[in-house]
Write a sequence for this structure.
C-alpha cells in the first residue's frame, strides 16, 4: 500500500503510456512529463506567492490579501487575470524582438532545470548522468534573459539593473558550483539520482544527509547564500532594488510579460530550493527511517516549501546590501570558504572511517570560518557605537 | 535642422564630460518610489558612482507665503497643517508662537503642558516613521516601517479623538489650544507612553546591531559639522554631526526648562548617527512626556481674554521658532496694522536640510543616494511649500 502510494504518479504515467501504440509511447511519455512540470510548478508558484504575501503580512503586523475567496486564497487567480488583461506596453525605442524574447527565454530555461530534479523515487523526468551540469547550464542561461530585458528596454534603470544582475549572478555562480562540487566529490557522481540514493540510508534511524557532515554543512550554508543571490532574493535583491532602481531590469515590462518575469523568478527559486534539498537535505528521502511510510514525493515538496519559508523570513528581516559589499562578500569570503571546503572534502575522503576525520574536518572549517569572519570584520570600518549627550 | 523625435529617442543614454569618459545621466524622480513624493534628483553616474547631483525642487509648490499674506491670522492656521503633514501639531505651535509674540499674548500653563505633550508625541511618531522609511530605502521590505506605523497609529488615534483629525489637526490657537485635553485623553496618552519603551527596544533589537544596516549606513553620507553649521542645517541632522544645538534648550520657548532631558549627539555625522540620534531622541521625548503627564496642572486651556479672530496687531515684526521634529521651524511675520500680515515667511527645516544633499552624495554609490536622501528626513509639503 505504501509502495503503491509512493509510486502512484509513476504507475499512472505507465498506465496512460501503455494505452497508445509502441512507436508513439516515448513521445507521449515526454509530453506527459512536460505537462506535469508545467501544471505542478506554476501551481506551487501561486501557493508560494500567496504564502509570501500572507507570511510577510503577518511579520509586518498586516493581514495580507484577504478579499478574494475565503481568507484570500484566490488572490493568485485574481492576480493572474489582472496580468492577462492589462495592456502590454512596449517602449517606443525598445528593441521589440529582444524585448519580447527576454521573458520567454527566462521562463523556458527555468523550467528546463526541472527535467533533472528527482522529485520522488523513480520520479526524475530525464535521469541524466550529468544532471547537475545540465542544471547549472540552464541556471546560467537565465542571466542572458535578464541582460536581454535590461538592454532592450532602453531605460536607464533597466540598464543599471541588468548590469548589477549580470555582475551579481556571475559572481555567485562560482561559489554555487564549487559548493555543489563537494557533494560530487563525496558521491563520485554528477547524477542527481545517484546523489539522492547515497543519502537515502539510515544509521540508528537517522538519515545520511550531506548536511550532517562537516563539509556538507559548510557547503550547505554557502549554497544557501549563493542560491539567494542567484535568485535575486532579499537581502541580495539588488538587480530589482525597488527603492533605487524602481524595478530594475523589468521596469519597462507590463501585463503578461511582467507576469512571466515574476513567474520565472519564483519558479527559479523553487527549482534552486529543489536542487539544494536534493544535494544536501536528501532529496526525496524521509528525515527519519520510520517516516518512510510517507510517500517520497511528499518529502521533496515539503523540503522545497521549508526552503521557501526561509526565504520569506529573510525577506521580512534584512535590509539590502550594496553592490560593492555584495561583491566583496562573494569573492573575499564565500569563494575562499568554498575552495577550502573542497580541500576538506578531499581530506575526508582519504582519512578513512572513524571519529578522527569528523574532528579534524570540523576543526579546520570552524577555524577558517571564525578566522575569516574576524579578519573580514576587522578590515571593515563598522561596528556598534556608543553615544554621548550634551550636558 | 534639429534631430527628429526618433533620433532623440535613439540617442545613447550617456553624456561626455571631459576627462571622465562616458557618464550616465539618470533623473531619479519625480516618479520614483523613494523620493517621498514629487522630488527630482538629476544624478550623473560613472558606473554606479555619483559624480554630480542636482536636486530639483518645486513640483509641489502651493504658494503658501502668498496665501499667508492674503488671509487673516487665524485663517492661516489650517494651512500650516499642510506644510509638514507628518507633524501638523508642531507646525501649529510654531505659527501660534509667532503670532503670540507679535501681539504679546501670554499662554496659560495648562495649554503650555498640552502643547509640550502633543509636540513630543508628534516627535516620536515622526522619528519612528522616518527610521521606517530609511530602512525601507535600504531595502528592508517594510517590516520596520510597519512596526513604526503600528505605534504611529496609536498616537494618531489620540490626535483624532482630541482634535478631530488624524493628520490635519488645526489645534493650536493664539493664547492656548482649541479644546481641552480631558482626563480621558491624558489617560490615553499615558497608556501610549507606557507602551512606547517596549516598542523602541523591539525596534532597536531589529535594527541597531543589524550588520547589513551598519554596513550600509556607517561612514556613508558624512556631513561635516562646519558644513552643517554653514549651510544652516538644524535638528537631528545637525546633532548627528556633533553640534549641540537644540532650540528647546537654546531658546527656552514654552516650558521646556521645567523638564529634565538630554540632547544626544553623534560623532561621525553619517547615516547611522542620524538614525541613532533619532532613536535616542525618542527615548528623551518619552522622559519629557512622563514628566509632563505627571505634572500637568488644572486651569484654562486657553486665555479667556485672548482675541482669536479679527484682530489687528500693531505694526511690527516677530519671529517664532520651535524645535520641530525635522529641525528649526520658524515663522516670520511683519504686521502693517492690517488683518493679515504684510510679510509671511516660513523657515522650513526640510528644505534647508536638503540643500547639502549633493555634498553628502558625491562619490557614493547610486544605492546610497536614496539612503542619504531618506536620512535627511523631509516632507515634500514643507520643502516646496
Amino acid at each position: 500500500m505504501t509502495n503503491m502510494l509512493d509510486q502512484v504518479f509513476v504507475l499512472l504515467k505507465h498506465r496512460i503510456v501503455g494505452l497508445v501504440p509502441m512507436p508513439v509511447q516515448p513521445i507521449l511519455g515526454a509530453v506527459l512529463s512536460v505537462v506535469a512540470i508545467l501544471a505542478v510548478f506554476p501551481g506551487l508558484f501561486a501557493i508560494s506567492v500567496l504564502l509570501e504575501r500572507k507570511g510577510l503580512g503577518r511579520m509586518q503586523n498586516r493581514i495580507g490579501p484577504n478579499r478574494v475567496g475565503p481568507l484570500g486564497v484566490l488572490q493568485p487567480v485574481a492576480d493572474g487575470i489582472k496580468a492577462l488583461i492589462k495592456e502590454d506596453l512596449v517602449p517606443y525605442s525598445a528593441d521589440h524582438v529582444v524585448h519580447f524574447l527576454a521573458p520567454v527565454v527566462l521562463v523556458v530555461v527555468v523550467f528546463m532545470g526541472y527535467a533533472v530534479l528527482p522529485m520522488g523515487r523513480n520520479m526524475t523526468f530525464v535521469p541524466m548522468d550529468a544532471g547537475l551540469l545540465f542544471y547549472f547550464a540552464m541556471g546560467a542561461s537565465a542571466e542572458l534573459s535578464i541582460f536581454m530585458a535590461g538592454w532592450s528596454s532602453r531605460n536607464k534603470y533597466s540598464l543599471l539593473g541588468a548590469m548589477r544582475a549580470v555582475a551579481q549572478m556571475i559572481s555567485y555562480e562560482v561559489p554555487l558550483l564549487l559548493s555543489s562540487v563537494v557533494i560530487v566529490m563525496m558521491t563520485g557522481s554528477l547524477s542527481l539520482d545517484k546523489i539522492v540514493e547515497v543519502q537515502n540510508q539510515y544509521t540508528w534511524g537517522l538519515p545520511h544527509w550531506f548536511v550532517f557532515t562537516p563539509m556538507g554543512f559548510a557547503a550547505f550554508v554557502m549554497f544557501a547564500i549563493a542560491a539567494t543571490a542567484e535568485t535575486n532574493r532579499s537581502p541580495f535583491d539588488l538587480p530589482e532594488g525597488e527603492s533605487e532602481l524602481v524595478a530594475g531590469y523589468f521596469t519597462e515590462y507590463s501585463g503578461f510579460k511582467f507576469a512571466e518575469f515574476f513567474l520565472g523568478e519564483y519558479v527559479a527559486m523553487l527549482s534552486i530550493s529543489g536542487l539544494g534539498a536534493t544535494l544536501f537535505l536528501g532529496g526525496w528521502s524521509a528525515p527519519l527511517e520510520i517516516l518512510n511510510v510517507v510517500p517520497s514525493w511528499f518529502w521533496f515538496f515539503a523540503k522545497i516549501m521549508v526552503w521557501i519559508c526561509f526565504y520569506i523570513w529573510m525577506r521580512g528581516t534584512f535590509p539590502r546590501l550594496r553592490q560593492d559589499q555584495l561583491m566583496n562578500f562573494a569573492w573575499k569570503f564565500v569563494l575562499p570558504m568554498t575552495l577550502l571546503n573542497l580541500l576538506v572534502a578531499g581530506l575526508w575522503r582519504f582519512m578513512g572511517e572513524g571519529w578522527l576525520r569528523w574532528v579534524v574536518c570540523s576543526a579546520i572549517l570552524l577555524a577558517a570560518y571564525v578566522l575569516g569572519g574576524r579578519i573580514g570584520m576587522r578590515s571593515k570600518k563598522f561596528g556598534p557605537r556608543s553615544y554621548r549627550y550634551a550636558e | 535642422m534639429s534631430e527628429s523625435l526618433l533620433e532623440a529617442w535613439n540617442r545613447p543614454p550617456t553624456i561626455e564630460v571631459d576627462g571622465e569618459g562616458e557618464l550616465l545621466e539618470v533623473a531619479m524622480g519625480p516618479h520614483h518610489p523613494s523620493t517621498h513624493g514629487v522630488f527630482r534628483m538629476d544624478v550623473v553616474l560613472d558606473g554606479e558612482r555619483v559624480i554630480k547631483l542636482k536636486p530639483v525642487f518645486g513640483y509641489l509648490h502651493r504658494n503658501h507665503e502668498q496665501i499667508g499674506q492674503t488671509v487673516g491670522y487665524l485663517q492661516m492656521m489650517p494651512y500650516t497643517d499642510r506644510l509638514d503633514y507628518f507633524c501638523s501639531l508642531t507646525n501649529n505651535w510654531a505659527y501660534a508662537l509667532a503670532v503670540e509674540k507679535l501681539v504679546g499674548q501670554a499662554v496659560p500653563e495648562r495649554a503650555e503642558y498640552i502643547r509640550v505633550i502633543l509636540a513630543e508625541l508628534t516627535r516620536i511618531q515622526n522619528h519612528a516613521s522616518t527610521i521606517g522609511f530609511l530602512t525601507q530605502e535600504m531595502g528592508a521590505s517594510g517590516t520596520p516601517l510597519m512596526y513604526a506605523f503600528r505605534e504611529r497609529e496609536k498616537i494618531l488615534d489620540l490626535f483624532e479623538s482630541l482634535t478631530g483629525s488624524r493628520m490635519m489637526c488645526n489645534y493650536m490657537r493664539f493664547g492656548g489650544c482649541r479644546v481641552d485635553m480631558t482626563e480621558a485623553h491624558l489617560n490615553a496618552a499615558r497608556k501610549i507612553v507606557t507602551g512606547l519603551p517596549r516598542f523602541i527596544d523591539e525596534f532597536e533589537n531589529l535594527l541597531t546591531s543589524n550588520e547589513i544596516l551598519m554596513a550600509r549606513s556607517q561612514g556613508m553620507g558624512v556631513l561635516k559639522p562646519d558644513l552643517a553649521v554653514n549651510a544652516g542645517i538644524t535638528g537631528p541632522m545637525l546633532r548627528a554631526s556633533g553640534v549641540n544645538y537644540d532650540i528647546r534648550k537654546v531658546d527656552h520657548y514654552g516650558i521646556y526648562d521645567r523638564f529634565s532631558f538630554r540632547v544626544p549627539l553623534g560623532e561621525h555625522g553619517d547615516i547611522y548617527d542620524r538614525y541613532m540620534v533619532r532613536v535616542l531622541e525618542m527615548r528623551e521625548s518619552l522622559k519629557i512626556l512622563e514628566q509632563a503627564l505627571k505634572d500637568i496642572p488644572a486651569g484654562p486651556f486657553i486665555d479667556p481674554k485672548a482675541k482669536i479672530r479679527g484682530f489687528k496687531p500693531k505694526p511690527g515684526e516677530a519671529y517664532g521658532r520651535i524645535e520641530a521634529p525635522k529641525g528649526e521651524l520658524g515663522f516670520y511675520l511683519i504686521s502693517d496694522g492690517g488683518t493679515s500680515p504684510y510679510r509671511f515667511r516660513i523657515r522650513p527645516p526640510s528644505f534647508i536640510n536638503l540643500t547639502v544633499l549633493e555634498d553628502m552624495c558625491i562619490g557614493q554609490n547610486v544605492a546610497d543616494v536614496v539612503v542619504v536622501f531618506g536620512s535627511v528626513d523631509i516632507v515634500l509639503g514643507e520643502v516646496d511649500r
